[in-house]
Prior knowledge:
679 residues, 27 helices, mainly alpha
Amino acid sequence: MAGPRFSGTLVEDDATPAPAGPRFSGTLVEDDAPAPAEGGRSHGALNAFARGVVNGLPIVGPYALAGIDRADAAVRAVQNDSRYSDEVDGARRYGAEVAAEHPIAETAGEIGGGIVGTAPLVLAAPAAFGAGAGGLLGRSAISAATGMALGGADAAVRSDGDLTQIKKGVAIGGTLGAVAPGLGQAVGAGAKKVAEAIGVRAAPSAGMGATAMEKLAADAANAGGTGAVRVRLGELGPEAMLLDASPSFEGRAQGLAVLPDTREAIVDPILRRASGANGRLAADVDTHLGPTLDPAAFQAEWRRAYGEAVPPLYQNALGQPVQVDTSGVLETIGRMGAQEKGGAELALRRAWGLLHAEQEVPGIGRAVVPDRRPEALHNAKEALDSMIAHVQAQQGSAAASELRALSAVRSGVNDALEAQVPGYAEANRTAQHFFQQRDAFDNGQRLLNGGREAARPAQVAADTAAMTPEVQQAQRLGLRTEVDRLVGTQLNDRLALRKALMGEGDYNRARMGTVFGEEPTAGMAAAVDREAAFDATHQNIVRNSQTAQRTAAAADLAPRDVRPSASDAVPAVAAAVGGVQAGLAAQAAKLGIKGAQAGFNAAGRARDIARNKELAEALTRRQGEQLEALLEAIGARQAAERMASGVGRAAQIGTTAATVSQADRAKAYVPFGFLPARR
């Protein structure tokens, strides 16, 4: 048409002064404006990108895009009451038009689709795409085979089985597959470095330099993380230093201990701690097991208490005017005497004599008759106790028969006295209770003994449960004195002390738990373990043990040498070729290089020494706010490193997926360069 036309209504306005002529109100219509997109579809770049993403999916992309177009055509056929085949043709034309109008968006979508479709495969089977472990050459070979299979299959789908295109897809897919592992590794490493630099810079430093923090973070990772470090420090108590938390920290301290600039900073705190070991352990043992009591003091106190309590009871009982009938005991002696021979027979005769006395008998005169006086019979019982103790030291069947005979007589005499003398049984029970305390004290001193005669934990538990509280306390004091003896005699050898107290198995720990209780025993065991650990640290770091580990750690931490590298032959060669002046110039240049290198080395050495001093201060920190702040900073750095590793791995996977999946896209650029060439 010649030009624009107007569509509107002529308006006559009489209310206002008339303008120069009539005016129109309406809309300007351009007859040459482009028609709406076919079927109302948008031709924007976003649509092109979205279709490219779907089409870019390896192998399945064309099928998926065709399925979307058919589904859209079916909906439009119903909405527009049109033929389905016409709508399918329209969808195809629309796809071609959008791709032609926005080639960059469509290509970007296809590349993204290739990544989206391949990345899950790389994650599911990283070894197949060269993203797993192993050497780069082997991974590249495997990835090349995978790329060939993927590229060939994708080309077959997109070319409807064209062999020429399939061969191209196989070749390009294999090439990209071979390149993908190295490229992915490089990109992943770079991304990790960048993310690590950003994350580490943002993490707190707790006053530590970057290089010192890097080494501490590595040691903490080897120790199992800051959580494991805190647990170990908590087990060792407030005197623990960071260097006690794990072998990695200890090895770092060993390396610093052999360097002159940091030797004192490492060794002196350990020596100061070691000087307080005796008092520290003694205080812990007292706290958990209670104060000790010397065996001689116990015996003296026992004799005093026994003398105050027992003899008066016997005196009151035996001073009563009663007569004791011993006919039952004498009958036992007569019956056993008719059967026993040898030592047992002689012992019974002596016992018979102890229970008789020569007295005046009315109508008869002096005669040997049964002694019925309570005090005399009590003395006879004590004489029998002495005889029994003597026989118990002997061995053999004859001694056993003699012991059996004497024990029967002694028991009969005691039963007669308890039954017929008021107060005698109470005196016996009181005396027996005292003797049980004395025996329990003695047994307590032997509870940690080993060998065949060692008390079994179950037996100790049963015996202790049957004791009165006073007897249990005596046993506890006896065991406490033995612990004190072991601490005093083996304190300089913490490992020997631990073995003596805790034993190699569970016997000593179980027996001590029965006597002292589980919580005090656990506290004492922790104290012994702590001092054993401190002593091991002292041995390893201060006393030059584990030389190989110290040497390796020192080599890792040694500051660089200020001196430049060995001289080279440049001046001599220059003089030979160019004469004396050239040689002098080369020598001057060489001296300048050496001076610059010496300056660099000196600066680097100063930084290394400063780093090592920071490490020494950190490794000897005791538990408190400063050490906790350092552990928080180490944890934050490790978190940043983990995040950076994740970023690097994602970049590696993404790069690998992007490379392997682009075989079909790359055919447009091979072998004519890298500019897009649309088909």
